[in-house]
Specification:
heterodimer; A: 114 residues; mainly beta; six-stranded mixed beta sheet; 11 strands; B: 116 residues; four-stranded antiparallel beta sheet; 0% helix; 55% strand; globular
Chain lengths: 114, 116
């Protein structure tokens, strides 16, 4: 059974700092990995989707990498801003039975201090 | 239109009430999902509809009854809920389901449900 772990659970940084969020998964037989952002009490916003054949994806100040063989992904946020404060969720779509299902990590709660 | 909408935003109901949650998308997606998210927890899959047919039911109690009347609309009918069912209910869609495992899922803003 796929398990997804995100470290750290919470992170507080001053504005302008670059930061890295980590995600690890136990079963490397995945279709893709997706990073989401969730604001308190709100739905999920998709940030980046990395297919299993890709190594990284970039969108603006965000860069996500994937090392499928080691079961790891990182989300790099450059020049952080207070508006980046949110919970960041990592989710994987695993091959085989249940491939319809996204398995989520518990998230990293990010606070960017002005 | 790349949006999934959900109504209502908030819902308070008693344990004897019957209510429905509604989800709508106009992206032509043929797979739609219901997730339940408790506070400080990740979303948990409840149901998957593929081409308007229920394809997955993750052992959800019968007091939750999904319905997909057409390709754009997904309902979740609620009856005789318990206080522990209080959560954020998220709807999502993707172009297709298993066949489109490489696709992203688009999430709605959720309905915050409180059962008294």
């Amino acid at each position: 059974k796929q398990e997804v772990t995100q470290i750290p659970a919470a992170l507080s940084v001053p504005e302008g700092e670059n930061l890295v969020l980590n995600c690890s998964f136990t079963d490397s037989a995945i279709y893709n990995l997706q990073w989401f952002r969730q604001d308190p009490g709100k739905g999920l916003t998709s940030l980046l989707l990395i297919q299993s054949s890709q190594r990284e994806q970039t969108s603006g100040r965000l860069n996500a990498s994937l090392d499928k063989s080691s079961g790891r992904s990182t989300l790099y946020i450059a020049a952080s801003q207070p508006g980046d404060s949110a919970t960041y969720l990592c989710a994987v779509r695993t091959r085989g039975a249940g491939s319809y299902q996204l398995t989520f990590g518990k998230g990293t709660k990010l606070s960017v201090i002005p | 239109d790349t949006e999934v909408t959900q109504t209502p935003k908030h819902l308070v109901m008693g344990m004897t009430n019957k209510k429905s949650l509604k989800c709508e998308q106009h992206m032509g997606h043929r797979a739609m999902y219901w997730y339940k998210q408790k506070a400080k927890k990740p979303p948990e899959l409840m149901f998957v509809y593929s081409y308007e047919k229920l394809s997955i039911n993750e052992s959800v109690p019968s007091r939750f009854s999904p319905e997909c009347p057409n390709s754009s609309l997904l309902n979740l009918h609620l009856h005789a809920l318990q206080p522990e069912d209080s959560a954020l209910y998220l709807c999502a869609s993707s172009p297709s389901s298993q066949q489109g495992a490489w696709e992203t899922q688009y999430f709605g803003p959720g309905t915050r449900l409180l059962v008294l």
